[in-house]
Each structure stands twice: as C-alpha cells, then as structure tokens.
Amino acid sequence: MNEIKDSHPAAAFQSAQEAIAWIVGRMEKLGIKPGLQRMQMLMEKLGHPERRLKFIHVAGTNGKGSTCAYLSSVLRACGYDVGTFTSPYLEKYTNRIQVNGADIPDDDLLRLVNDMKPVIDEIAETELGSPTMFEISTALAIMYFGKVAYPDYVVWETGLGGRLDSTNIVNPVVTVITNVGHDHMDILGDTIEKVAAEKAGIIKAGVPVITAAQPHEGWSVIEQTARAKKATLYTLGDQFDYANVTSELDLQTFDFKGPFRPIPGVPISLNGEHQLKNAAVAVMTLEVLRQYYACIVDDEDLYKGLKETRWPGRLEMISNEPRILLDGAHNPEGAATLAAALQTVYSYRKLNLMMGMLSTKNHTGYLRHILPLVDTLILTEPDFHKKGDATMLAELARELLHDMNRQVDIVVEPDWKRALEILTSRTEQDDLAVVSGTLYLISDVRSWITYQTDSEKGW
C-alpha cells in the first residue's frame, strides 16, 4: 500500500490555510475509504470526545441538507446552541463545521489539527493506513464540538451512505433517514435495497428513527433494521403526515399531524412540494426530542425557526436580472423534484438550463425529467477531478430527445464560466435560467455570481 509521506513535522502547521490544504490534499491521494476502524482508533486516541455530545444523525439520498437546515434553525430559535456538520460545503472548507451558523474559527481549527496530527501519523503507520480527508474532517468537527464549543445539540449529516460512513462513529439521540434513491450506487450497491441497507446502518439500538422513505424506496429494509434494533420508527404517511394548506413563491404552509399532537399552519419559506416533506420530517424529529428528551420547543419558536430557514443552492434565486435559479439536483429523484417545482412554482416564457455533472451519476434518469421542460440546454463541466464529459452528456441528451420527438437547442461549453456567460446572454426578461447538477458546479457558480470569486468547494 502506498502511504502518504507527510512533509510536515508533527504539529508543524503555521496557519489554518496550511492545515486545510493538508486535509483537503488527501482527497486526491486517498479518495474515499469506507469503514469505521480508523475512526474508532482516532476517537480512542483522542479520548472519545464524541461521547459528550447529543447528535441528531441525518442520512438519506435527497433532502438531508434541507432537513438539517430546518432542525438547526428551529433549535437555535428555541435558544439552544447548535453545532452542524454538513457536506459538501458550498463556499469554503470551514462552512462544514459551524456553531450557531458561524464557521469554526481559524485559530481553533489550527490548534485542533496540530493536536490531532501526531495521532493521525501514528494511525497511518498501522495496517489500517492513513485516515482520509473525510475522516479527519469528521474528527475535527467532533474535537471542536466536544472540546471547544460544547453545543447543546449537534446536527450531524452523513457524508456517503451511512453504515461505513465516518459520521457513524457517534451514538445519536435521534436518527433521521430522509429517503432512499439512486445515488452513489457505484459505492453503496446496485439496487435500492442495498442502498437502503447502507442508510439503515446508522440506526442504533433503542434510538428513535424518523423517515420519509416510501415502500418502493427500500422502506422495508429500514423497518426491518429498526425492529431488529428495537428502535421506534416514525414513518411519513403512517405515524405522522402533513397536508399542504397554502403554496406561493417563498411561502408555504402545512398542517402537521403527529402521534403526540397536531400542529396547524406551519410556515416555511423554501420552495417546492418536497420542502413540505423535509419540513414535516424535521418537525417529527423535534417532536421526538420534545417527547423523549425534554427539549423545549414552543410553537412560536418552531414557526419562527422553520420560516427563517434558508438553504443555499437549492431552488435559490441568486439573481433577478436575469432570473437565475440554482438547484443542486444531481440524481433522478432530485431532477424529478426540480421538474415539479419548475412546473408549479415558477413562471417563464423560455427555460434555459445549464448543467454539469460528475462522471459517476445516473444521467439518463436525470435528463428524462428535465428535457421535456427546457428550451435551451447548456452542458458544461464542473471544476472537479471526477467531472462528467460535456460532449458525452450532449450525445446522451440528443438520444433521449430523439426518443421524445423533441427539439431542444443544445450548447456544449466545457468551461463553466463561459457557459454561464452564454446562459446569461440568452435569458431575457420573461425567461428563467437554471443552473443545476453537481454541487461542485453550484458552489462555483454561486461564489462567482455573489462575490466574483472562485469557491473552495469540495468534500
């Protein structure tokens, strides 16, 4: 096995940027190595800081980020200090580790990475090999929350799958599996049942589980795992449900029906039918915290927290002249959600869509949902090492359009900045421009439009 030889002596990082470069540099060299043994050894050598924290562990194919955003916003509105660990980040590395919406400070990051480095080097010398970028990032979050910030709750998003994901080192107070769909099947398994089994791997003995997974999404696998672990399962459409009351741009309301009480007229500002579902999952999770763990959630704070939730890069109108909508849909289920929103929430004369993908995704399923709606399709490539080839995407789109008997103007421009210029120039006053696909592309476009700078995006 080729091990990374670190050029830095122990505790040698002089700045946060240097420490981050060392962590992020491991992605190219080591990639993703599923398994928990390195994390177990890391936590043991660091004195198990994860045991001091109350985690809300969130897995799922789509909706994880939005659900985490709802939970964090409401708990903060209730007066709790909330840590969040999310991925991939949209603008810079420190976005992934936050307390009350503020990134981990550079000086804390530098000190903690210098503290951890000798332990990481020690593990690298064992037969387990070097901890990966994601493992070190996960350990850094735990160290920050457990030894520096001490938040009341940590909203803890899985990176990939669940069972072998480095976040699965924790024992949470509640577990959430938003849904199960076609994503990362090259790593998690080639059937929905196999993917569901990986997600269900975060279910712990006796810890309640909330899910919006449906029968065709491998729900039975989640149900069997919960039963085997004696974990109470709350399923959308069974133990809890919601009914849409009003729906307009930037404001939706729904009535929540749960096992403990009904909650009428719940407001959210995020757009799309799918956000009602994500919000209902978050409300059920908060109800479980209220019921089992004496978490104080007043209705006033619940409504305020949900209404104030923002989630960048998901149906986010980033520009009004021209109208440019960002949405990180990158798999068939995400595309179906985006397509539904484009047909119900937004009005436009022409729809111009720019997309860039990673090479590992199910592009056929994605395009089948999107192609019937678009007038112009601009295919580009994210600035990332696993990027999907724009020319190959164009060939696939033409085949599908031929089968659909549809004519769409297709533009291939691998340089995403030039593609964005084409998109902007073609979008007139009554038109809508959409940038969709991998979050690696969304983060670049978002940073460029907002700040005219490149992002530091990544896992």
From TrEMBL:
<dbReference type="GO" id="GO:0004326">
    <property type="term" value="F:tetrahydrofolylpolyglutamate synthase activity"/>
</dbReference>
<dbReference type="Pfam" id="PF02875">
    <property type="entry name" value="Mur_ligase_C"/>
</dbReference>
<dbReference type="GO" id="GO:0008841">
    <property type="term" value="F:dihydrofolate synthase activity"/>
</dbReference>
<dbReference type="InterPro" id="IPR004101">
    <property type="entry name" value="Mur_ligase_C"/>
</dbReference>
<dbReference type="InterPro" id="IPR013221">
    <property type="entry name" value="Mur_ligase_cen"/>
</dbReference>
<keyword id="KW-0067">ATP-binding</keyword>
<keyword id="KW-0479">Metal-binding</keyword>
<dbReference type="InterPro" id="IPR036565">
    <property type="entry name" value="Mur-like_cat_sf"/>
</dbReference>
<protein>
    <recommendedName>
        <fullName>tetrahydrofolate synthase</fullName>
        <ecNumber>6.3.2.17</ecNumber>
    </recommendedName>
</protein>
<keyword id="KW-0460">Magnesium</keyword>
<dbReference type="InterPro" id="IPR036615">
    <property type="entry name" value="Mur_ligase_C_dom_sf"/>
</dbReference>
<feature type="domain" description="Mur ligase central">
    <location>
        <begin position="58"/>
        <end position="285"/>
    </location>
</feature>
<comment type="similarity">
    <text>Belongs to the folylpolyglutamate synthase family.</text>
</comment>
<dbReference type="InterPro" id="IPR018109">
    <property type="entry name" value="Folylpolyglutamate_synth_CS"/>
</dbReference>
<feature type="domain" description="Mur ligase C-terminal">
    <location>
        <begin position="313"/>
        <end position="438"/>
    </location>
</feature>
<dbReference type="InterPro" id="IPR001645">
    <property type="entry name" value="Folylpolyglutamate_synth"/>
</dbReference>
<keyword id="KW-0436">Ligase</keyword>
<dbReference type="Pfam" id="PF08245">
    <property type="entry name" value="Mur_ligase_M"/>
</dbReference>
<keyword id="KW-0547">Nucleotide-binding</keyword>
